[in-house]
Amino acid sequence: MFIKYEVISPFRGMVESVLSQESSYVYEGESIFVIRTAEKLVHISAEYNGVVTGLHVQPGDEIIPGMILADMGESMYTILMGSD
Fold this sequence. Notes:
This protein has one helix at 76-81, and strands spanning 2-8, 13-18, 25-26, 31-36, 41-45, 50-55, 62-63, 68-75. By secondary structure, the protein is mostly beta strands. The protein has a single domain (2-76), classed as CATH 2.40.50.100. The longest helix is centred in the C-terminal third of the chain and has 6 residues, at 76-81. The protein is elongated.
């Protein structure tokens, strides 16, 4: 079984950089995107460990709050057994 979740933008802004690739494994708290808001640069981080299964934005894209930036997932086996 594979658990899926989405990385969602809490901000309005522009994608400054994408720090991961599809099929990359990222850890909870690891930055995936850098967003330029009107005031500053903000890092969007993974909320859980998992594999990036889809990227929906690229550098230069305008984003709004609630927009899906990426899809991620994790095997239920890895969750139950521990990934480290």
